[in-house]
Design brief:
Elements (H helix, E strand, L loop, with lengths): L3 H9 L12 E2 L10 E2 L2 H13 L1 E10 L9 E9 L2 E5 L8 H6 L4 E4 L2 H10 L6 E4 H8 L6 H9 L1 E2 L16 H12 L1 H15 L2 H13 L22 H21 L3 H4 L2 H10 L4 H5 L10 H16 L21 H4 L1 H21 L3 H4 L2 H9 L7 H10 L4 H16 L8
Parallel strand pairs: 1-8, 2-5, 3-6, 6-7
Antiparallel strand pairs: 3-4, 4-5
């Protein structure tokens, strides 16, 4: 049966012209209703069989409990496929979804902002061989707003409810309105994929998108970040090495507590409180209690725990104190280039202008045409021979895709070959 929704989907794909069309239609219910949550091995086996027997792409989404629980694990996985319908799976009751991942591994997975969901899906045994990222497709197609709600509204003419994106998805049982929201997140994802594929093909960018999607699917898991404590908000205020050590000790102690209690670290101790204590280096538990973030609601045992971390930092020998900053793994910050290497600064200015101009011509974000880090690395250490083939090889070594090289190698060769401006006497 063809309903009004299907007719609208067939006809709604429009180029990202920015024109306002008719008011979007609220999408209130999934087509087959809200499915029961799959939370047992028996129910999961039925879902695996259904999705293995389905056909076409598989829409996939995951909900986390960021800001509530420790880490970024998935607390709900949503899938939809023609012939199988929609499934809502509880990874707490079904922590190993490897059989499901294997059942659909040969299908194309459709995700929105895939790099956000792939780590938590990988943890539970799901890893696509092929994917289509509707957010990235929207960027390449030139849409100004690429959130899922905006894309569904602009491309398909429907509005999605936005009220439950930041809730605590570790809640059990999950309320029905949340489950409806979760099911609707994959309801139109394949329709959106089909419309965006047509638009990318119309613009001559479909092969570019396929290269981007292949790179995401093939990318290895990210390496653990070195010194993650340095990302504490407010770190720019902390200058002395012993104060840095206090941040490190407090951050580590907080992380251990948060992991043990399975709560977000910010709910154990705020970043602001860590920085306050590191700056003050209080000499007693009482002095610590007087600082912002350590008020009357904090028990004596907790205060002693944080004070012990500060004491550990105070007792460290100078040789064990952290350096003011990590050794750079790439070029220095561009603001220092003019002093360190004026020729490199001139190359960077010319290269940025060239990439920006080409991105505007192609109607896509500059960072999607070529990553700023790649541009910086190329300009700081250009090839010995400035030729288009050498520049192409350098871009390839930095991870640029072939379509990016085709669009930028000649421009960057000219930018690197340009004479730097002469200093006035």
């Amino acid at each position: 049966m063809t309903d009004a929704r299907e007719t609208s989907i067939d006809n709604a794909a429009q180029p990202p012209s920015g024109d306002t069309g008719p008011a979007p239609v609220p999408l209130l219910e999934p087509r087959e209703g809200i499915p029961s949550v799959t939370a047992t091995p028996e129910a999961l086996a039925e879902v695996v069989d259904a999705f293995a027997a389905g056909h076409g792409p598989v829409a996939v989404d995951a909900e986390r409990a960021s800001g509530y629980r420790y880490g970024q694990r998935a607390y709900l996985v949503q899938l939809r496929r023609a012939g199988a319908g929609t499934a809502l799976i509880d990874p707490v009751g079904c922590p190993n979804l490897t059989p499901l991942g294997e059942a659909i591994e040969d299908a194309e997975w459709v995700l929105h902002a895939a790099t956000q969901d792939l780590p938590c899906l990988r943890e539970i045994g799901m890893q696509p061989k092929r994917l289509f990222d509707t957010e990235l497709a929207g960027r390449l197609a030139g849409f100004a707003r690429v959130g899922l709600g905006a894309m569904v509204e602009n491309v398909l003419g429907y509005s999605l409810e936005k009220g439950h994106s930041a809730v605590d998805w570790s809640t059990r049982p999950l309320p029905e309105p949340w489950l409806r929201y979760a099911a609707l997140d994959v309801e139109l994802l394949i329709d959106l994929r089909d419309a965006l594929e047509k638009e990318l093909d119309r613009q001559g960018k479909l092969e570019w998108a396929r290269q981007e999607f292949a790179a995401i699917a093939a990318a290895p898991p990210p390496a653990p970040r070195k010194d993650p404590w340095r990302r504490t908000s407010g770190m720019h205020k902390v200058r002395r090495r012993r104060q840095l050590a206090a941040v490190r000790e407090l951050w580590t102690a907080r992380d251990q507590v948060a992991r043990r209690r399975d709560v977000s670290p910010g709910k154990v101790l705020t970043d602001a409180a860590i920085v306050e204590a590191a700056l003050a280096m209080p000499a007693s538990v009482q002095a610590l209690a007087a600082l912002p973030g350590y008020g009357h609601r904090m028990g004596r045992k907790q205060l002693e725990q944080w004070y012990a971390a500060i004491q550990r930092a105070r007792a460290l020998p100078e040789s064990a104190l952290p350096p003011p900053a990590l050794a750079p793994s790439g070029p220095p910050p561009p603001r220092s280039w003019a002093d360190k290497d004026p020729a490199a600064a001139a190359r960077l200015s010319a290269a940025r202008a060239a990439v920006t101009g080409r991105a505007e011509e192609l109607d896509l974000p500059q960072e999607n045409l070529l990553s700023p880090d790649t541009v910086r690395r190329l300009c700081w250490e250009p090839p010995d021979e400035i030729s288009e083939s050498a520049v192409a090889d350098a871009l390839r070594a930095h991870g640029a895709r072939e379509w990016q090289i085709e669009q930028t190698a000649a421009l960057l060769t000219a930018a690197l070959s340009a004479e730097p401006p002469k200093n006035r006497p």
